[in-house]
Write a structure and sequence with these properties.
4-stranded mixed sheet; 251 residues; 5-stranded parallel sheet; single chain; globular; alpha/beta
Length: 251
């Protein structure tokens, strides 16, 4: 539901006050047998509900994607398998699957190549962290941010990171993705004046406890301006970075 459009239609006398009232009384969510679709989320947050695909039955996923697409003309989904995506593409031929980030998306007609704004930088400690970084990249890009990717600049070869300082310092927000000991975020934050979102990954040997070592390092960062999302949560980082980026652009 687009409240602004409803109000504009009333102003233009395209609909009556009574019709507008009826539309505004519609429940803020749609009740399905297996889900409650939050159609007021776009009003509250500026972005429609995003679909978490992992573990969902295909028939449920198809109906959820279909209703969101019908309502908004666009859909973003995370943690989708290739099998889920192929099945969805039979019903929605314009659906794109970004396999490395496990993202499905349908963008609005005419939005292909739309202008992105601001500047978000995503950097990783190693090449093995790229899948999580890609989830962040496709999320921030979908939400309208201009995104630069810098891969494999972990602190074991600090010169690699230092060679990118000028790019980092131009960002409105930085996402630092790292496993192992997860020190990348602290080093990056010490070099820039913008917020840094730290993403611990489950990449590492046994003693990293599936990403817990990186998580604890990032949570205990002595650098200022570091926030931390959950282990492997590229989507959460990309969403938050896009919000920060948008507010920076809007001043």
């Amino acid at each position: 539901m687009n409240i602004k459009k409803i109000l504009e239609d009333v102003k233009k006398e395209a609909i009556t006050v009574e019709e507008a009232e009826r539309l505004l009384k519609i429940s803020p969510y749609e009740e399905l047998e297996f889900a409650k679709l939050d159609f007021h989320r776009a009003i509250r947050q500026g972005v429609p509900e995003v679909v978490f695909c992992q573990g969902k039955k295909q028939e449920y996923l198809e109906e959820i994607v279909g209703r969101l697409y019908e309502e908004y003309g666009e859909v973003l989904g995370t943690r989708a398998t290739a099998e889920q995506a192929r099945s969805l593409q039979k019903k929605f031929p314009n659906l794109i699957y970004e396999e490395e980030g496990r993202i499905i998306k349908i963008e609005k007609e005419g939005d292909k190549g739309q202008k992105r704004v601001g500047h978000v930088v995503i950097c990783t400690g190693g090449t093995a962290d790229i899948p999580v970084a890609k989830e962040a990249y496709y999320t921030a890009d979908y939400l309208g941010a201009n995104v630069t990717e810098i891969y494999d600049v972990g602190i074991s070869g600090l010169h690699r990171l230092l060679s990118q300082v000028s790019v980092l310092q131009e960002a409105y927000c930085i996402i630092a993705v790292a496993g192992m000991e997860g020190a990348l975020a602290s080093v990056v934050a010490g070099l820039v004046s913008c917020p840094v979102i730290a993403v611990p990954t489950s990449v590492g040997y046994g003693a990293n406890f599936g990403g817990m070592s990186a998580l604890l390092t990032m949570v205990n960062s002595c650098a200022n301006g570091v926030s931390v999302v959950n282990i492997d949560n590229g989507y959460g980082a990309g969403y938050l970075a896009a919000m920060i980026n948008r507010q920076s652009v809007e001043g």
